[in-house]
Design a protein that fits this description.
The complex is a heterodimer of chains A (about 80) and B (about 350). Chain A has about 80 residues and is an all-alpha fold. Chain A contains 4 helices and no strands. Chain A has a single domain, classed as ACP-like (Non-ribosomal Peptide Synthetase Peptidyl Carrier Protein, Chain A, Orthogonal Bundle), CATH 1.10.1200.10. In chain A, helix 1 crosses helix 4. With about 350 residues, chain B is of the alpha/beta class. Chain B folds into 2 domains: about 210 residues, Peroxisomal Thiolase, Chain A, domain 1, CATH 3.40.47.10; about 130 residues, 3-Layer(aba) Sandwich (Peroxisomal Thiolase, Chain A, domain 1), CATH 3.40.47.10. Chain B contains 11 helices and 12 strands. In chain B, the strands form 2 sheets. In chain B, strands 4-3-5-7-1-8-12-11-9-10 form a 10-stranded mixed beta sheet, sandwiched between helices. In chain B, strand 9, helix 9 and strand 10 form a beta-alpha-beta unit. Chain B starts with 5 loop residues before the first strand and ends with a strand. The chains are: A mainly alpha (about 80), B alpha/beta (about 350). At the A-B interface, helix 2 of A face helix 1 and helix 4 of B.
């Protein structure tokens, strides 16, 4: 799981162009949106595409994203449970 | 009655250190290359990191040059934003298309799509300013910038707007350079600033840049020059050029003798510099001459660099030695810019001290 969390942090930094953020600056429980990492709705779309492309997870209901993308912890938990690749 | 059109401020990011508006070509960047990248300002000083992370290079350059122009004009907002670009934010367009192929038309992410449209720059500037006015982007190859200028000129002359932000932007992308080198549109052998015009080879030195100006029908302390007129010609044979120039000047009540400086877009392409030689050795043989593409490189909106250069020359009443094409002294009050690319998309722009 810790490998997956590290992988997610690296992917988020790379795909969302968070040039000034280092992996170690993102805590597993930090909120990804709002006050935490400050991601926005376009980032949410990027993350949905990332789940599909890299882990074979299709989110049928975008509202699910709210809970899944709360933090690295919640993302990693959901991916570990639902991944097909 | 038509109102006059003034250039009230300028902003530039180019292959030279032009982003600092307090200087005028004091630091020259020489090269031995086939392509030139811009001398980048510290973008972080202009753009919040959260916004910058999703910005293509063309948007970053334009944010800086448009902010510079607005600041100099003393404006916080503007009536209209008009941008010319030959290729838009080409890098993201290229990545977006590559992703389509790589991912077999699946998993397309929104950011590159948003960035890849040509009107992204004008849109992002408007979003940054909260400008809900006229917002238009012209994509007309080597006269994209002039098309924007023409739109602004007409609006200002007819008093449909008072202050308009007008710009030209193009970014350089590796793939574009390589493909155009294959067809000899860009040089394959490196040249230097001094050897560009004598290279006797095909193609130009590819580059990039962003130039913005506040055009207004109200003169103010910061005013650089008056835009007297401009004309665009999609097709023009070399032998037609002298008559077109005479006719253009006559329309604006000027003659060849009235021109204090002619600024020419020679880019060292042996196949097409003949157009400029028709003027430099003919009509304007006894007129002070300047050139600029040894400094700016070639790109679809390179003529915006000439517009920036000419504005600066008129305001400072000085022609930097580095741009002089002949040894004649210029009082730099009335300047004519002539540009074309590969024998098409010609433009004439007439500026005057005011």
């Amino acid at each position: 799981m810790s490998d997956l969390k590290l992988e997610l942090k690296e992917k988020i930094i790379e795909q969302l162009n968070l040039e000034d953020v280092a992996v170690e600056e993102i805590a597993d429980t930090d909120p990804l949106f709002g006050e935490g990492l400050g991601l926005d709705s376009i980032d949410a779309l990027e993350l949905i595409v990332m789940l599909d492309k890299d882990y074979g997870i299709k989110l049928a209901d975008p509202k699910e994203g709210r809970k899944i993308f709360e933090s690295i912890d919640t993302m990693a938990g959901y991916i570990a449970e639902h991944r097909s690749r | 009655m038509k109102k006059s059109v003034y250039i009230n401020s300028v902003g530039s990011v180019s292959a030279q250190k032009t982003f600092d508006n307090s200087e005028f070509l004091e630091e020259i960047t020489d090269y031995e290359a086939t392509e030139l990248k811009v001398v980048s300002p510290n973008y972080k000083a202009y753009i919040p990191p959260a916004a910058a992370r999703r910005m293509a290079k063309g948007i970053k350059m334009s944010t800086v040059s448009s902010q510079t122009a607005l600041k100099e004009a003393g404006l916080e907002n503007i009536d209209a934003i008009i941008v010319g670009t030959g290729l838009g934010c080409l890098d993201d367009s290229s990545k977006f298309v590559s992703d389509i192929i790589k991912n077999e038309e699946q998993f397309l992410t929104p950011t590159r799509f948003i960035q890849s449209s040509h009107n992204t720059v004008a849109g992002q500037i408007a979003l940054g300013l909260g400008c809900k006015g006229y917002n238009f982007t012209y994509v007309n190859s080597a006269v994209s910038f002039e098309s924007s200028l023409l739109d602004a000129q007409l609006q200002l002359e007819n008093d449909e707007a008072t202050h308009i932000l007008v710009g030209g932007v193009d970014e350089m992308v590796e793939h574009h350079v390589r493909t155009h080198q294959l067809i000899d549109h860009f040089k394959n052998q490196p040249v230097t600033m001094k050897t560009l015009l004598s290279s006797k080879t095909e193609g130009a030195v590819m580059s990039e840049g962003s130039h913005f100006f506040v055009l207004s029908n109200e003169k103010q302390d910061s005013t650089y020059a008056e835009l007297l007129g401009l004309e665009i010609y999609n097709e023009l044979a070399q032998e037609q050029l002298p008559d077109q120039v005479r006719s253009f000047l006559k329309y604006h009540d000027h003659s060849i003798e009235d021109i204090d400086l002619v600024v020419l877009g020679n880019n060292g392409d042996i196949n097409f510099d003949g157009y400029y030689q028709v003027l430099s050795a003919g009509l304007f043989a006894n007129t002070p001459q300047a050139y600029f593409k040894h400094l700016s490189g070639e790109f679809d909106t390179a003529s915006a660099f000439a517009f920036w250069l000419s504005s600066k020359i008129i305001k400072t009443a000085s022609v930097p030695d580095i741009v002089k094409l002949n040894a004649l002294h210029s009082s730099a009050k009335t300047v004519l810019i002539y540009n074309q690319y590969r024998g098409k998309n010609h433009s004439l722009v007439l500026l005057k001290k005011c």
